[in-house]
Amino acid sequence: MEKHILVLCAIFALCMVNNANAIQCYKCKSTIDGGCTNEALDSATTSVKVVNCDDEPKPNTMEQYMPVTRCNKVVSSDKAGPIVSRDCHFQVVGTKPDVCAVSHNQQVDMCYICSGDKCNSSSSAGRFVALGLTAILAFVSMQFAL
């Protein structure tokens, strides 16, 4: 029985690990690419580009940024109305990990930060649901195997 619990813990840990720094994110801004406003993106059907965050230039400021391991989807607004942008999440050293910043005098209305390649395709928590279901399925399968 202990062996089965150990296997389950190992499977769950592997599901939760983000083992690479070279994360890929969708990158777009609705003022330039109308497809950026779609609720969900699919790399097979969208024209929105996917970028390797290790290859993307950091924002042009004097601040220090941590290695990029997450993506974001930000909905902001200005005088012209709402603006949707998707990008690599650049976190400044010493700041909270769940803070999104935008340039120019825009108000952040919604900030969604996620881990995993192309996770900023929507604002749902689908990845965590999938991981949870995988862990539950593994546990139930092991119980029936006993």
Automatic annotation (TrEMBL):
Cellular location(s): Membrane
Protein name: Uncharacterized protein
PANTHER family for this protein: ATILLA, ISOFORM B-RELATED-RELATED, PROTEIN QUIVER
Keywords associated with the record: Glycoprotein, GPI-anchor, Lipoprotein, Membrane, Signal, Transmembrane, Transmembrane helix
Major site of localization recorded for this protein: membrane
Gene: 106082727
InterPro entries documented for this protein: QVR-like, Sleep_regulator
Spans traversing the lipid bilayer: 128-145
Pfam families per UniProt: QVR
Membrane topology note: Lipid-anchor; GPI-anchor
Signal peptide: 1-22
A Gene Ontology term for the protein's cellular component: side of membrane
GO BP annotation list: regulation of synaptic transmission, cholinergic; sleep
